[in-house]
Design goal:
Length: 395
């Protein structure tokens, strides 16, 4: 879905610079955007057996994904119902019960309360409502997502028109290459997402991609805000040795995929904060999580199809080398943007039609947090009150 310039001119205006500087707004965005959206936790092959679990700490919500003895995959808020201690850490295999390390409250693998030490000291014997809080969970192409606040569109519906692009990569067969990496970027989380939503910056900002790929600068987007672009390996050999080797090796080593798929790098962004990059040899995801107004945490796990060939290991090394450089470039660009946005006199200029996905994302932020559509900050400490008034229809 590519907008025309007329459609762009009729759309909502971009977010104002202050929305990238407000700690109070960042908190509100987490509550209204992040908690109500799908958040990636792990690959289904990271919890393959009964009692396998995987945890993820969102900015305000510790999450637990657990496969029960019945084989069912469930998700819970990873918080004891007694005094709020986090129950499990990391990813591993648990025992028949989950036990809180603080006071020893224990839970069955379906989340129900199993027992409380010194049970006779509790005035209320009713325990049926004291199990771990369940979360909405969905497995999409082997990827496990949870939603803190239930309701809304399913992942299958959000991505349905892109399934013909994604399914040939056989994501459900992939396994974790290594533990997820984490970085802290000195920018608002929206700066990172904005950057990922457009390829307008690729020719200048990513010279390696420009040598390696014939990139779709405009991209596409559906009604749910899931944006994407398809980049094809160039036939002309890159002047960079790693990129050139990748161009030479990838088509032959990914022979189990169609010729079109093995030569295409597919890039997607799902609102509000998740990126999905799919290659013939691997896949990486990344998520931007707010850490106040001008910092964010970036999480990036990598997955591959099982393949022990030495040549495939070399291809993955080349891919990682190329994309490490791209990631470093993106981080530097985003941090430069934040420095500029912080100028008291700065205001965003007009957006190119190449940046239509950025404008859509800004509209989604404004819809979730109406106060973010204001041209100036209503003031720290009153922002929530003003947002509530706007939600209620006040002017």
């Amino acid at each position: 879905m590519k907008p025309t310039p007329d459609a762009m001119s009729q759309a909502t205006r971009p977010l104002a610079a202050w929305t990238y500087q407000s700690a109070e707004l960042a908190e509100l965005e987490y509550e209204t955007l992040f908690r109500t959206s799908w958040q990636f936790v792990c690959h289904v092959n990271e919890v393959p057996k009964p009692r396998d679990y995987f945890t993820l700490d969102l900015p305000r919500d510790p999450v637990l994904v657990l496969r029960g003895d019945d084989g069912v995959l469930r998700a819970f808020l990873n918080v004891c119902r007694h005094r709020g201690a986090k129950v499990l850490d990391g990813n591993a295999t648990c025992k028949a019960r989950l036990t809180c390390p603080y006071h020893g409250w224990s839970y069955h693998l379906d989340g129900s309360l199993a027992g409380r030490p010194s049970e006779s000291t509790f005035a209320n014997p009713e325990t049926a409502q004291l199990g771990l809080r369940p979360l909405e969970i969905e497995v999409f192409c082997g990827l496990v997502f949870v939603r803190i606040v239930p309701g809304g569109v399913s992942l299958r519906d959000m991505w349905k028109e892109y399934l013909p692009l994604i399914e040939p990569y056989q994501l459900e067969d992939m396994v974790s290459l290594e533990a997820a990496g984490y970085e802290e970027w000195k920018c608002n989380w929206k700066v990172g997402v904005d950057n990922n939503l457009e390829n307008y910056h690729v020719p200048l900002g990513h010279p390696g991609y420009q040598r390696l790929l014939d990139s779709d600068i405009t991209g596409f987007m559906n009604q749910h805000g899931v944006a994407g672009s398809l980049s094809v390996l160039r036939p002309q050999p890159s002047s960079n040795w790693a990129e050139r080797m990748y161009q030479q090796m990838a088509p032959g080593l990914n022979s189990n995929l169609s010729a079109k798929v093995r030569n295409t790098w597919s890039f997607f962004t799902m609102p509000p904060n998740t990126g999905l990059d799919i290659y013939g040899d691997s896949m990486d995801l990344f998520q931007f999580f707010p850490l106040g107004a001008q910092r964010c945490r970036v999480r990036y796990p990598i997955y591959v199809r099982p393949d022990t060939r030495r040549e495939m290991k070399v291809l993955r090394y080349l891919n990682a080398r190329i994309n490490r450089q791209v990631g470093a470039e993106d981080r530097a660009l985003c941090e430069r943007v934040q420095l500029g946005i912080n100028s008291k006199d700065f205001a965003f200029g007009p957006l190119s039609s190449y940046e239509h996905c950025v404008l859509d994302m800004h509209a989604r932020v404004q819809a979730a947090c109406p106060v973010s559509a204001l041209e100036s900050n209503p003031g720290e400490g009153v922002l929530r009150e003003r947002n509530s008034s706007l939600c209620a229809g006040a002017t």
